[in-house]
Amino acid sequence: MNRITALFDIKYPLIQAGMVWNSGWKLASAVSNAGGLGLLGAGSMYPEVLREHIQKCKKTTDKPFGVNVPLLYPDIDKLMQIIIDECVQIVFTSAGNPKTWTSYLKDHGVKVVHVVSSVKFALKAQEAGVDAVVAEGFEAGGHNGREETTTFTLIPMVKEKLDIPLIAAGGIATGKGMLAAMILGADGVQIGSRFVATPEASSHVAYKNLVVEAEEGATELTLKELAPVRLLKNKFYEEVKALYQTTPSKEELVNLLGRGRAKKGMFEGDTEEGELEIGQIAGIIKEIKPAADIVEEIITEYKNSVLPKF
């Protein structure tokens, strides 16, 4: 038992990221049942939808699971009340100041983890009283830090400064990737993109198929003036790229982005006009398979990996 398995009472130190439009109750419960920690992605759920997913998760797994809450969510007080009402024991927070809600959650017996992209923010999270930190390199999909620090660079730097458990994220999809992160100092890993390509992910199959088809260089981090996000290159991405050629104002970028782009792409399957968030690691994902099989593959490869001799 290591610090992450002890903290969450799980079999493997492997967390499924709470990704918007992907991480519903089917995926979270499947990963938890397989020995990892499944997370519900509350960022794309109305409060009552989150309640429904929590209740369904409870019915489909007797193992621990958690909720990922972006702190910039507009009705966050309603989300937090539902989390307390439904007795959720684990919350991962992201995209905001951890001081805002950490004490409230911990006062209600919730274990709190915060996602960061730098040593500076890792230390701020520790000072805020979180139980663990996810340090995410800019290889990751979705919204990222502005520092563009890679996972292999970030993990040892954070490990050197941090006292609480450290979870590595960004560019990890295999057992060997997990082993590399652990050797660099992580106590566990958080994996997102690999779990997009599963039957259990709540996203549209057209989006999942594009993830499987992705090759090296298929994604790019963009829209840094708004909130840096790693996207698959599609028609919408090309429109963003073309707009950048005109040195656009922030308002022009906001107008192009509009509302509901991520839902349109990942959930509704509009692969041309939608925002398709995925990590660089998509280049090695070659098939859609059940979440439990992915967990088993990762853990088996991790355990069977032998360090090269020289």
Describe the fold and architecture.
α8 packs across α14 (291-304). The chain folds into two domains: 3-202 and 282-303, TIM Barrel, CATH 3.20.20.70; 205-281, no CATH class. The mean pLDDT is 95. The chain contains 14 helices and eleven strands. The longest helix is centred in the N-terminal third of the chain and has 14 residues, at 47-60. It is α/β, with parallel strands linked by helices and 310 residues long. β10 and β11 form a beta hairpin. This is Enoyl-[acyl-carrier protein] reductase II. Pfam families: NMO. It comes from Leeuwenhoekiella marinoflava. One of its GO terms (molecular function) is nitronate monooxygenase activity.
Number of helices: 14
- SSE pattern, N- to C-terminal: HEHEHEHEHEHEEHEHEHHEEHHHH
* CATH homology-level superfamily of the largest domain: Aldolase class I
The name of the CATH architecture of the largest domain is Alpha-Beta Barrel
Counting structural domains, the number is 2
CATH topology of the largest domain: the name is: TIM Barrel
Helix content: 40-55%
The order of strands across the largest sheet is: 1-9-8-6-5-4-3-2
* Rg, Cα atoms, Å: 18 Å
The low-pLDDT segments are none
Task: State mean pLDDT (0 to 100 scale).
Answer: 95
Query: In what range is the share of β-strand residues?
Result: 15-25%
General shape? globular
Pfam family, one: NMO
Protein name: Enoyl-[acyl-carrier protein] reductase II
GO molecular function: nitronate monooxygenase activity
Keywords: Flavoprotein, FMN, Oxidoreductase
